[in-house]
Structure prediction request, 404 residues.
Amino acid sequence: MDMHAFSRNFVNKIPKILLLMLVLYALSLNRGMLFGHSAEPVTADAPTPFDPAMAGDFFKSPVTLSTEDSVLYEVRFEAANADPDGYVIVGNRETNSGRGFGGSVPVAVFLDDGMIIRGVRLLENSETPRFLRRLEEERFLERWNGRHLYDPLQQIDASSGATYTSRAVVSNVNNTLAALLDRKPAPLSWNRFVTNYLGEFAILFVAVMSLACFISPQSTRQIRIPLLLLSVVVLGIWQGAFVSLALLYKWLIFGTSPLVRFGIFIVVLLALLLPLLTNKAFYCTYLCPFGAAQELAGRLWPGKRAIPKPVLHIARWVRQGILAAAVILLLTLPHFEMADIEPFTAFLIRSASASALILAGLSLVASLFFQRPWCRLLCPTGELLSILRRPVRYPKFLSHRSGR
Prediction:
């Protein structure tokens, strides 16, 4: 694409970009936050919000709390007690800045009077509830129990069913304890580094392969099947890294950590920018793990039928309607879980909702008879990316006057 065509394409899409920015701004106003920054500025050393009633629930007794810095709380079962009966360490915004799938996951650490850790609890957060329930099922928060406050800080293995959430919890616990003791957080060993970041490099590798297929589809046809398999295994089953309305909304409101999640961050950038700048589909065609799963399923049965063109035309309006309905839902019910209306979390089967599993199952079965039915008929995320791809069609009289 020459520079003149490139600039003309970009100028053509400015009204569409402005409209999308207006929608995004409305969504951010609804939650009072944009990319993790509150409408009211909060400094990094500001205390993490903490409900004192949580201490009474944890110790199963009425308690009195005292603190000098809203970071370390002394717990007394009776206000007259000279010595504390326990402690609660809450930390500040900086030490609780580790982000999971849907934003920061702040923690509080509870200790007895001997400075032994008796429990870790999650404070108010915006993480996807099913990932939190996965941590509960694995009793993940109990892995610090029995350790002394002054024991060496250690890295805890992440949960396989909620990888990003559990890593954020580990980071926040260690950073909170390290800050209180004026220590450095526990360094990552080589094995831990590989465990934490090998997946991100694998995502990046698949993204590079997909980009090569996007740039030169004819000369890379022979790697189409390996690419589909890698997309399903790496992005889907192993990493759960997929572009979805739920992910885009969470990142818009609560932000993310690009340096920690660099693989999926680059995937999201490519998914949004390439259709906008080139008018060509990228993510849906070459990188989406669920689209790849549908295509692979379709290759198992040679007798597929073409979806009639009238149905495809109607489906476009259906996808736009689902996308509009999703925006309305988020404006009226900002805590609505978007992951429930898309099948992508089926790859994380232990954390997936029943609706996601049903949508995924039906779509894969239908893929035996029709090409990528979810993508072509219902996917709202695909429709959002298509909106970025399609040029704005002006009325004929405007096109004539503007010289188009």
Summary: Residues 190-215 form the longest helix (26 residues). Residues 178 and 185 are 5 Å apart (CA to CA).
